[in-house]
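Hi R.,

As promised on Friday, here is the backbone we talked about, encoded as structure tokens. Could you run it through your design pipeline when you get a chance and send me back a sequence?
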């Protein structure tokens, strides 16, 4: 069964407390929190203050996805805000090895996200320093975009790399996940399914979360 991580990005921001409580009662495993800076991606969202407020209401693992330049500036702050997993972009981290070590040192799981054009092979030399690889299956910045089909191939390659290196990082898929691709992604080897629009724009988010959890 995949780990299901609803993305706050598509929630109703006027009712964040209700949305967090709804997720508490659901079969969601994680809460995916998208931090955007308007520079790395053409959109702005939220940062530490919202995350630390939500931390008080949520019982879920906080999976924080930083879409910001120089993410190493805020590692300690996101730990304090309540992040359990901190994911930085390969494309935004000049000293990725140092950043991954700093994330683990701060007591969090270290994630790396790859844009759709970034080959998974580029992670080969830091593979042992990674707890999670987030494959972007849309160009980051917005919810509700169309899933990029090339992602399946990237999952298969990552599974090979994981076997060859005898490591056990999780493979997360972020963007355009829905009932049409969830099972195929899981079969290919994806461990974590992030979903925003599919969950929060549905009539019954609790049931929609369940449909992802039991997609196999
Ligand atoms: C996109 C974000 C995603 C987004 C996914 O830049 O990283 O986490 O919320 O949303 P959907 O599932 O709507 O594509
Ligand atoms: Zn995300």
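Update: got your reply. Pasting your designed sequence below so it's all in one thread:
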């Amino acid at each position: 069964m995949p780990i299901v991580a609803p993305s706050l990005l598509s929630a109703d921001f006027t009712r964040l407390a209700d949305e967090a409580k709804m997720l508490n009662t659901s079969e969601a495993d994680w809460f995916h929190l998208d931090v955007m800076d308007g520079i790395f991606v053409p959109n702005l969202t939220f940062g530490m203050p919202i995350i630390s407020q939500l931390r008080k209401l949520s019982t879920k693992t906080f999976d924080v996805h930083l879409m910001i330049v120089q993410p190493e500036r805020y590692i300690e702050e996101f730990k304090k805000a309540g992040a359990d997993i901190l994911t930085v972009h390969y494309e935004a981290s000049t000293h990725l090895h140092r950043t991954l070590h700093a994330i683990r040192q701060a007591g969090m799981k270290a994630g790396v996200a790859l844009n759709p054009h970034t080959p998974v092979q580029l992670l080969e030399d830091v593979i042992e320093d990674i707890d999670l690889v987030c494959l972007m299956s849309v160009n980051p910045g917005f919810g509700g975009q169309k899933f990029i089909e090339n992602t399946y191939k990237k999952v298969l390659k990552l599974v090979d790399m994981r076997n060859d290196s005898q490591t056990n990082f999780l493979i997360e898929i972020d963007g355009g996940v829905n009932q049409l691709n969830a099972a195929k992604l899981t079969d290919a080897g994806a461990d974590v399914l992030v979903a925003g629009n599919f969950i929060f724009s549905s009539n019954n988010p609790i049931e929609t979360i369940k449909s992802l959890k039991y997609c196999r």
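One thing I noticed while checking it: The mean pLDDT is 98.

Thanks again,
M.
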